[in-house]
Write a structure and sequence with these properties.
Blueprint (H helix, E strand, L loop, with lengths): L25 E3 H4 L8 H8 L3 E3 L2 H9 L7 E3 L4 E2 L5 E2 L1 H81 L3 H6 L1
Parallel strand pairs: 2-3
Antiparallel strand pairs: 1-2, 3-4, 4-5
Length: 180
């Protein structure tokens, strides 16, 4: 940052264009600045020139570029209109910056949403696998129980078969073989 010291003795200030004081919706910047001590007026006139301050952006744009002569204007929201056509600052700049921030935040939130959606899909897939596993385990348990009952039934059938074979061969009652 540079600091320039201006000597009021050597400043050549252009005279103020008095017609600019009559413009509707605008005032000379030098007229709206309060300053003390009075001898700095020349430095302020040098710095401000014929720049105008306007109530709103529309007036500032109209006065800056709308007539046959261009003027340097600034709106109360901070929008600066240079004679060269450059427009800077103001609420539109803030809105653009906010929009850029919002876009970044939205992008981050979209990425987070995608990541969380993928995590949710993985968790749902795991839950389905767990449910399938529980179902298979239940079926396996049921089959084990059927096998146990079938084996018990087979043993009883073998015993009855043996008893019947003995009865047929010996002529004794099957009850006799159970107690013997």
């Amino acid at each position: 940052m540079f600091c320039h010291l201006l000597s009021c003795f050597f400043l050549q200030v252009k005279p103020t264009d008095e017609k600019l004081r009559e413009l509707k919706g605008a005032k000379l910047v030098i007229d709206v600045i309060r300053y003390e001590p009075p001898h700095i007026k020349k430095a302020l006139q040098y710095a401000c020139g014929n720049a105008l301050v306007c109530d709103n952006v529309e007036d500032a744009r109209r006065i800056a570029f709308g007539g046959h002569q261009r003027h340097k204007t600034v709106a109360l929201d901070g929008t600066l209109f240079q004679k060269s056509g450059v427009i800077s600052g103001g609420a539109s700049d803030l809105k653009a910056k906010a929009r850029r921030w919002d876009e970044k935040a939205v992008d981050k939130l979209k990425e987070k949403k995608e990541r969380l959606t993928e995590e949710l899909k993985e968790q749902m897939k795991a839950k389905r696998k767990e449910a399938e596993l529980r179902q298979v385990q239940s079926q396996a348990h049921g089959l084990q129980m059927r096998l146990k009952y079938s084996q018990s039934d087979l043993e009883q059938t073998k015993t009855r078969h043996l008893a019947l074979n003995l009865q047929v061969g010996t002529g004794l009652s099957p009850v006799f073989f159970f107690f013997f």
